[in-house]
Design a protein that fits this description.
CATH superfamily of the largest domain: ABC transporter type 1, transmembrane domain
Oligomer: single chain
Number of strands: 10
CATH class of the largest domain: Mainly Alpha
Largest sheet: 6 strands, mixed
Distance between the termini: 68 Å
Helix content: 55-70%
Strand order of the largest sheet: 6-7-8-3-9-10
Strand content: 5-15%
Structural class: alpha/beta
Length: 603
């Protein structure tokens, strides 16, 4: 990691000192082990299976250590002793060892893969649940494709570290230690050749491992970017096709995946260079072993069987050190992916229940805003808003675009909290009650209706999950939706497509109204619910809305004043403040902003 621009090293152009390099290495190692510790913590509930898998892997590694010794005895029996019975017994012994190794390999692999899949499942569930706990402001600053990538690709990237890499690290360690021990016993002089290579390989692994970790993080970022580009275009496919922008979107995606390819290619180059260096070092060492070992055999200080066994152990050490170096690279890759994942898990919701929050009892619907001021960033969107609404009243919020109407409504279900002031329902500060109990008593119908890719029945039932089929159909009748639903071949079992693409705007609105009716909430929020409809659809939707608004406290946002003339109270907003309140007739007579808007629309 280079020094920051504010550090002395960069300000005077001097190269980092060895102390700086050592500190950087320690920091990188600390981050790696901290990341791996968090990754492996997810396997803690399954430690018995994991221990069983590691025990079986250890047995397999120990069996592998015995095999070269068996081959040594077999060769000596043939070339030194010419003993047929020893040859037969040794052959049978080797077959038994191979059977044991196959059995423990199966058991260890099965248990490790089971733990890996279980950890991935648990981690995805935890990340997804955490996303739902985060506040709305978090999603305003993130792309859906990036979050989807973290939920899928990043979780998959750390799977190997939890399963096969852990097992391989153990078996390679046992193989390395065991092989070194046996080699020293067989011929310590010959062992020095292979031992001289190990420090060079370890140093190379550390150097390349840090670079791979950094590139792995960048690969995951580029992958998230390409996923986001594709998801945005596919979600807005109607707009893309309407404006004939398919070629443009294809080029955008091509550019994103090319960036991903270039970043991934850089990582591939690093791994290929590293692998080549390790191979060169070890094959050079093996050549030296063949030469010097041959001299030892010719001098009578080493048997042919000893030399073959020695070469097998040299290969085992080469495989172990090379494997552990690769594992170090893999662990760094997993750590790079986990950084993005843990960044997400470490994000805390800005809107949460107070420690002493109580459930909100069934409400009457009396609402009071007291000196409410709110800003998304620094510039206030709402300034000193005070408003009282009686239970069962219909209040219309009107005014120019950007006046703060939607923001004011977003404060009621606590999508955001005001910086100053307070909001009360039936005399209770909404920050003193649980979010679940608050939002369960609010129903919303907006201009942009969000439907799920399931049946009409299930989309309506989303308002109350335990509702019976008859209750769903009753709500559809009240929302003027039953007739068009019954006209479909599959009726209420009709799939609506992603976001309700198979339905018209008016049909989607009526399903949303049926959903709100089924919820039967005392507080109703309507945000431009009829603004995008034709006259025929608007009449049906407005009739359904009138039924929905009966005996409920209702806030209505509307730009078309004709839809709110019958409201009990009209609140006129401009530049984040309330500038007028009254009935339609009163406000027209006052000659203020509302009167001006009415004149423009009705004339």
């Amino acid at each position: 990691m280079p020094p920051s621009p504010s550090s002395p090293a960069s300000s005077n152009g001097a190269a980092p000192t060895s102390v700086d390099a050592s500190s950087d290495a320690n920091t990188q190692s600390s981050k790696l082990w901290a990341a791996l510790k968090r990754i492996f913590a997810f396997s803690e509930p399954y430690r018995l299976r994991l221990v069983g898998a590691l025990v079986m892997s250890s047995i397999g590694a120990l069996v592998a250590l015995v095999v070269p010794l068996g081959l040594r005895e077999l060769l000596n029996a043939v070339f030194e002793e010419a003993n047929r019975s020893s040859l037969d017994m040794l052959t049978i012994g080797l077959v038994v060892l191979f059977l044991i190794q196959a059995a423990v390999s199966f058991g260890g692999t099965y248990l490790l893969e089971w733990v890996g899949e279980r950890v991935v499942t648990d981690l995805r569930k935890r990340v997804y649940a955490h996303l739902h706990r985060l506040s709305l402001s978090f999603f305003a600053d993130r792309r859906t494709g990036d979050l989807t990538s973290r939920l899928t690709n990043d979780v998959s990237s750390i799977r190997t570290a939890v399963t096969s890499s852990l097992s391989e690290a153990l078996t390679q360690t046992l193989s390395l230690v065991g092989s070194v021990t046996v080699m020293v016993i067989l011929n310590w002089r010959l062992s020095l050749i292979i031992f001289g290579v190990v420090p060079a390989v370890v140093g190379t692994a550390i150097y390349f491992g840090r670079k791979v970790r950094s590139l792995s993080r960048r690969v995951q970022d580029r992958l998230a970017d390409s996923t986001a580009v594709a998801e945005e275009a596919l979600a807005a496919i109607r707009v893309v096709k309407s404006f004939a922008r398919s070629r443009f979107e294809i080029d955008r995606y091509d550019d994103a995946v090319e960036d991903l390819f270039e970043t991934a290619r850089s990582r591939v180059v690093l791994r290929a260079v590293f692998s080549s260096i390790v191979s060169l070092l070890f094959f050079s060492a093996l050549t030296g072993i063949f030469w010097y070992g041959g001299l030892e055999v010719l001098a009578g200080r080493l048997t042919a069987g000893d030399l073959v066994a020695f070469i097998f152990y040299a290969f085992a050490i080469a495989r172990s050190v090379g494997g552990m170096s690769r594992l170090y690279s893999d662990f760094n890759s997993a750590a790079g992916a986990s950084e993005r994942l843990f960044d997400l898990l470490d994000t805390e919701p800005t809107i949460r229940d107070a420690p002493d929050a109580a459930d909100l009892p069934p409400i009457d619907g009396r609402i009071r805003f007291e000196n409410v001021t709110f800003a998304y960033e620094e510039e206030p969107v709402l300034t000193n808003i005070s408003l009282e609404v009686d239970a069962g009243q219909t209040v219309a919020l009107v005014g120019p675009s950007g006046a703060g109407k939607t923001t004011l409504m977003s404060l009621l279900p606590r999508f955001y909290d005001p910086q100053d002031g307070s909001i009360h329902i039936d005399g209770r500060d909404i920050r003193s009650v649980t979010l679940r109990s608050l939002r369960s008593q609010i129903a919303t119908v907006s201009q942009e209706v969000e439907l799920f890719h399931t049946t009409i029945r299930e989309n309506i039932r989303y308002g109350r999950l335990d509702a019976s089929d008859s209750a769903v159909e009753e709500a559809a009748h009240a929302a003027n939706a039953h007739d068009f639903i019954a006209g479909f071949p599959d009726g209420y079992e009709t799939e609506v497509g992603e976001r309700g693409v198979k339905l018209s705007g008016g049909q989607r609105q009526r399903i949303a109204i049926a959903r709100a009716l089924l919820r039967d909430a005392r507080l109703l929020l309507l945000d431009e619910a009829t603004s995008s409809l034709d006259s025929a659809s608007e009449a049906l939707v407005q009739e359904a809305l009138d039924r929905l608004m009966e005996n409920r406290t209702t806030f209505v946002i509307a730009h078309r004043l004709a839809t709110v003339r019958g409201a009990d109270r009209i609140v006129v907003m401009d530049e984040g403040s309330i500038v007028e309140t009254g009935t339609h007739a009163e406000l027209v007579d006052d000659g203020g902003l509302y009167s001006h808007l009415a004149e423009l629309q009705f004339s």
